[in-house]
Amino acid sequence: MSIKLAQYLAVQGWKVVLLSFPESIVSDRLPLPTGMNHVRLSDMSEEHLQQQLKAIAQNYGSIGAFIHLSPLTATATTAKAILKQVFLIAKYLKKPLNEAAKQGRSWFVTVSRLDGNLGIGRSSDFNPIHGGLFGLTKTLNLEWEKVYCRAIDISSEINPEIAVQSIVAELYDTNKLILEAGYSPQGRTTIVNQNYVISGNSKIKNYNIGQDSVFLVSGGGRGITAQCVIQLAQVFRCKFILLGRSSLNPEPSYAKGCNDEIELKKRIIQDIYARGEKPTPTRVTNLLKSIVQGREIRETLSKIEQFGSKAEYISADITTGVLVQEKVAEVAAKFGRITGVIHGAGNLADKLIEHKTGQDFESVYVPKVLGLETLLSCVEIQQLHHLVVFSSAAGFYGNIGQSDYAIANEILNKFAHHFKHQYPNCHVISLNWGPWDGGMVTPEVKQIFAKRNIEVIPVEVGTQMLVEELAFGHQDRVQVLVGGSLATLHSSLEPEMQTYRVRRKLTLEANPFLQDHIIGEHPVLPLTYSIAWMVNTCEQLYPGYKFFSFSNCKVLKGIVFDESLANEYIVDLKEVNKSADKEIELAVTIWSNTTAERPRYHYTGQIKLLRQIPNTHIYKAFDKTQDENYLSLSPYKDGTLFHGSSFQGVKRVLNISSKRLTLECMSSITDAEQYGQFSVQTFNPCTADMQNQGMLIWVRHLYQAACLPLSCEKGENFQYIPSGKLFYTSIEVLSSSNTNFKANVISHDIDGQVYSQVFGAEVIINKQLNSLFIPAEERKMNKLSGNKR
């Protein structure tokens, strides 16, 4: 595939150099075509790599793009070696790629060979270590603001030609919010982060956890992992084998009863002098550290026992496999068979990529990845009930200064999915923790997080979440994200007004919701989805900015999924106003070419993005009156509304008058895949559509006619409407006639707190449309019976 991609890019005018690894790493090679530029590494040392990268720049020109393609097969050893080499390549490409980005697009792209579904599909036939490329790429995307970074996963079932086309499509994608994409025979996959609620009862369900359960825990002697173990002991009364690097030596007599650190240092120095030795600062610090760590471990063991559990601490380097196995076996002989593993060990070496070293990579990678391997070598995997790995939000999002940490944690994430497919009866959880309130988060760091709107996890909350996940968490939820991104992606603005053109092909198959939005005989794209199309495109071009408002949105020629559907739709965007670190306003037009190659304009509007969304307000005119004459209306069944189940969010009509209408609503689409090509980022098109349905209800009630949207003057979006929660839509009538109706549409909660508001929404009224508004259920029955109405 590397050769085919190189050939394709060369034909497109790229100057391509193929950089290959030594034969000891990748031995399965195809002969190179004549004339292809090629550099081969003779070894995997950092010095040799740096020399070869310099040679490439001298012989072929400055490097403006890097694309790494993982081999189809690789052992754990070679996969790690390749991953480390790509990590070091990134280190030395920081300067040239960022320089190239000043002249146009530059690329850092990695291609892994997992399952084509980003390692979260139903396959276990892949090496999770390749998943580390995702953590690296996402971190570089944050560190290198101007460089286009994308991680791609290609299934082995995809043929090389299709794979090359997929990679090239990703190279030129305009969506800067998507950082990872997979390709399998089923199509393209991106990750959507979904909220879910742990459905527990007052009593713990105890999924195979009891007093006979034995957990092997790494990093469990001190810190956050120890706090988690203490909480588990309190709830489950089980047994724990705790592994840690800290030694647990008897406390010196001079230290007993002394808790003041300054006084303790004095006693350490006095003791060293008493033995006729010299107290160096390093020696004093190490002795103090040993005493403090020993106390923390003893306190952990004491608290566990206070709650009726048993625990034993083993001091050992988790990466010393055989030694750890022997020590663990001794404790297991007393406690019983190990039924659960909790991997909490880890290490940090925070630096920007250009300052990283090979040793930094090793110090972070080894305890996380090889440490887990060691833990699993100590247990009978077939009889394991629980596997819990403490990953990090840095792996899911990437994080500035933590490229190696993101790599290691993404490997844990991919490993957890892989393990679950291999052992489906084991309860596997990869907890992607955000920062905890304690440990490394000092008060100063906490203040910085607060300024960046990053929430820390209170210890009592995080430990209880672990208990609940083990007790009654969803058995098929492998990866759980707790907390948000640790870094905010920033998009700098160019001083000149910019223009963009984005192309998209729409298909009925890719958009399941369209089957529930059929007018007459054909699916029709809702106006709110065209607005979402504009909003999403703008947000994707400006990471760090959020949609706040639209204005002058008009339907010129709606998109109908029939023979008139165009092969391609074009979105033209033009900046009309912007202020650095504050706002951007863009004029957007969606159009297509007709068979005569003349433009057909579909939708226009202006979209405003803000760095900071303003606070919402209270809608004081909320009419809570429940009129018995309207509560029993069934607009989805009586021909008022044509919408199918995906759009049926109006639960009750509370009241209607000549001046207003009030609806009680609830979001209807819960499956992200239902949104198809119009994924929810900030603006939810389905929820917005059901708010507009109130206008159709009002028109039918007052004029006994159907209507279709024309335009809206302005809309503002303050906050996301929670899924599964009741909300209210209040419609204020501005003007009406036999042909037109204009209103304001405000959505809010029971207390009047506004989610969104639309001013000057206008529809065209036409009784001839009535016959097209056949209820969705009736239309389906007619179709099945072959009847026409």
Question: What does the model show?
Answer:
By secondary structure, the chain is of the alpha/beta class. It folds into 4 domains: 2-189, Rossmann fold, CATH 3.40.50; 214-246 and 310-482, 3-Layer(aba) Sandwich (Rossmann fold); 499-610, Thiol Ester Dehydrase, Chain A, CATH 3.10.129.10; 628-785, Thiol Ester Dehydrase, Chain A, CATH 3.10.129.120. The protein contains 18 helices and 27 strands. The strands form 5 sheets. It has an 11-stranded antiparallel sheet with strand order 15-19-20-21-18-24-27-26-25-23-22. A hairpin with a 3-residue loop joins strand 25 (727-736) and strand 26. 39% of the residues are buried. The mean pLDDT is 90.
Number of strands: 27
In the CATH hierarchy, what is the class of the largest domain? Alpha Beta
CATH architecture of the largest domain: 3-Layer(aba) Sandwich
> For the record, what is the CATH homologous superfamily label of the largest domain?
NAD(P)-binding Rossmann-like Domain
Number of helices: 18
Provide the β-strand percentage band: 15-25%
For the terminal residues, how far apart are their CA atoms?
55 Å
State the helical fraction: 25-40%
How many structural domains can be distinguished in the coordinates? Answer: 4
Q: What structural class is derived from the secondary structure elements?
A: alpha/beta
Largest beta-sheet details: 11 strands, antiparallel
- Radius of gyration (CA) equals 30 Å
Order of strands across the biggest sheet? 15-19-20-21-18-24-27-26-25-23-22
Which term fits the overall shape? Answer: globular
- The CATH topology of the largest domain turns out to be Rossmann fold
Mean pLDDT: 90
Low-confidence stretches are: none
